[in-house]
Amino acid sequence: MIKLEHILAGCLILFSACTNNEGMKSKEDQFVDELLSKMTLEEKIGQMNQYTSHWEMTGPAPKNASSQKRLEDIKSGRVGSMLNVFGAQATYEAQKLAVENSRLGIPMIFAYDVIHGFKTMAPIPLAEACAWDPEISKLSSRLSAKEASAAGLHWTFAPMMDVGRDARWGRVMEGCGEDPYLASVLSVARVQGFQGEDLTKENTIAACAKHFAAYAFAEAGREYNTVDIGTYTLHNIVLPPFKAVANNNVCTFMNAFNIMNGKPATADPYLQRNLLKDEWNYDGYIVSDWGSIKEIELHGAAESVKHAAELAIKAGSDMDMESNAYLPYLKELVEEGKLEESLIDVRRILKVKYKLGLFEDPYKYSNTERENQTLYSKESREGARKIARHSMVLLKNNEQLLPLSKQARSIAVIGPLATDKNSPLGSWRAQAVKNSAVSLLEGIKNAVPTTTKINYAKGCDLATGDRNFLDELNFAGADKSLITAAINTATKSDVIVMALGEDCFQSGEGRSQTDIRLKGAQMELYNAIRKLNKKIIVVLMNGRPLAIPEIAESADAILEAWFAGSEAGNAIADVLFGDFNPSGKLTMSFPWNVGQCPIYYNHMNTGRPENTGNVFWSHYTDAPNTPLYPFGYGLSYTNFKYGTAKTNKETFTKNEFVKLELPLSNMGDMAGEEIVQVYIQDPAATYARPVKELKAFKKIKLAAKEEQKISFKLNSKDFGYYSPEGEFLFEPGLYHIYVGANSRDVQKIAVNFID
Ligand code: BGC
Q: In angstroms, what is the span from residue 291 Cα to ligand 1's centroid?
């Protein structure tokens, strides 16, 4: 076990300063003031510098010049934070370099992308969001924090709260989906899970709201591409989740790679200073995204990296991640009179370090004993399985084919993902061990008695999605012998489970795609099996909505399992055999085809929304306007009946609540959970409003045949919105309220607000 052995005397003296009561200042402020008063300009700039780890911190000192320079920088207090150093021992060694060698012994803060787990993987965030359950989101990030903190980490670059409407963009797997309200609720829960109630505890870590802002609106879904949205979309769609977490104590923010209205986000004073720090009164710090300061020059918005550093710091970007722009240039810029020295302000950074208790004990997270006990623990794996079951979405279930009986005589398990132990771990998998997930085949075998015959065939290889479209056109097709073997396997089985989808690295950062159909020979395989006229259950594993119209039409059942994490196979089997009744609902619309992207439920009406019978209305001539599966959609093994919804009255003043009530009945013989969704629409506003906007939801558990009265309370704020200038407006008048099982199947009630 690593013990606290080395705390610089200076650090101890500084810490004791915070116990002297001085006026009304908090201990934290006293401490930070005292420390700031001792810091030189260079030391302050050092705190704003973040390096990635280039060498094994526990190994011998690096030999190459650039790593040696970094080592010197750490020892001289020129590095405030590192990313990608992890492990109790490695973080201990790294921390020692800073604390024991630098003049003031200020500890570094260690960060890592712990997105959906550190060693044990929970489902990818997009999947977890489909649980529509803040407790599930909190559980996922709590488990991540426990593992990450035990591996010496203080800070995660999560949650990502970019509202994503375009399935082509690979990073939709990392967010909550297309709705700003749901993203707000779930992001707050995720932050609470990471940060817990008390940040000084050794098993809580600082969270980071990213990417500020509008990164998901990359044109045509192409990674890092230009964003050109208006301020109306910015205020109403992009910013709400960020505001919600800023109001709920998220420790840090990360800016974004993209430009918006010609301004790189990292150099944007409006977003970072005016809005976040001033208007929202946010007191955490902002880290730039990887290299995003130097990319200001590449965007064509700075003359040089030095100029980019000047723009970024003026805009409010506090910490430089791997641009190497602040360390070499900030002092020069001050000396040349281009920067006010007061802008080199590291109070925010020091405060977060204080909150984490790093000044008290810089090594408290680096505890090998705890690390050994916590990583990949039973608690983590059980949690991951629970989260996975809640994340799955039943898209189709003809004639109640599911749940399957465990006593079935024979089940064929077919498909390139059936035995895959790697893809279920998803992208952004931190320190998960490759091939460590429970595969679907293993999960099914674990669930059934030995008398049930399980027949497996791969059917085809999993294309990685890296082939470009020209290769795809020249693709010779499936390996016929694999298909023949799969047909034989299917022929001798009573029921067929097919595992289809994406390779795990088809989604994630840098993984945008122009074609979101099943890749490679998967459709050829599916069509060959379908010809047998047997019952087919398709289990999808993927990191984004897919275009699967043929499967939607012809499969008997479809379970969207996503990349479900370390316990994927077991959790899928829990659902397939009815040990868990699925309750997840989609948080991103599934298009019929990629040409519909971006497709989202909260779109505008347009001036020509109705089918006029001629060609001159807003539509495609070769596909519907509506998605294949809408936002909020998902089935259960039981069925729920929505009774007539009523409001307590029809006309309301601004200060009154609208109370909405409806009976919900479980008509089936199985207990189940239903996510009841409430949307609103302002049909005549100063600025045109979307056709629907989610404003409330509840997950209701009902026993077989049980009926419950479900109630919601909406206040006038729920009916308001932001003008393009960012002013919050509430406009009396007529509103529609919609309530139902998804964004499409709803009943409508009209209410009036009067002045
Ligand atoms: C990503 C961030 C991530 C960072 C550090 C960047 O490329 O955009 O989300 O936190 O790398 O790994």
A: 9
Report the pocket of ligand 1 as residue ranges, CB < 6 Å.
Answer: 83, 113, 157, 210, 289-290, 509
The CA 213 to ligand 1 mean position distance, Å, reads 14
CA atoms within 13 A on the CB side of 147: 29
Q: State the CB neighbour count (10 A cutoff) for residue 419.
A: 15
Measured by CA distance, the residue closest to atom 2 of ligand 1 is 289
Q: What's the whole-model pTM score? A: 0.96
**pLDDT for 376-397, tens place per residue?**
999 999 999 999 999 999 999 9
Catalytic hit among 133, 268, 289, 320: 289
The secondary structure element, H or E, covering residue 259 is strand 259-260
345 counts as catalytic: no
pLDDT tens-digit readout, 406-453: 999 999 999 999 999 999 999 999 999 999 999 999 999 999 999 999
How many CB atoms sit inside 10 A of residue 560's CB?
A: 28
Task: Summarize the confidence of residues 125-134 as an average pLDDT.
Answer: 98
- In tens, the pLDDT along 198-222 reads 999 999 999 999 999 999 999 999 9
Q: What whole-number distance in Å separates Cα of residue 442 and Cα of residue 88?
A: 33
Answer yes or no: are the C-beta atoms of 183 and 163 closer than 8 Å.
yes
Structural tokens at position 654: 């601004």
Residues 6+ apart with CB under 8 A from 22: 30
Question: What's the 330 CA to ligand 1 centre distance in angstroms?
Answer: 23
Atom 6, ligand 1: which residue's CA is nearest? Answer: 290
DSSP three-state, residue 165: coil
Q: Is 353 helix (H, G, I), strand (E, B) or coil?
A: helix
- 3 state SS of 50: strand
Nearest residue to 529 via CA among 575, 460, 584, 597: 460
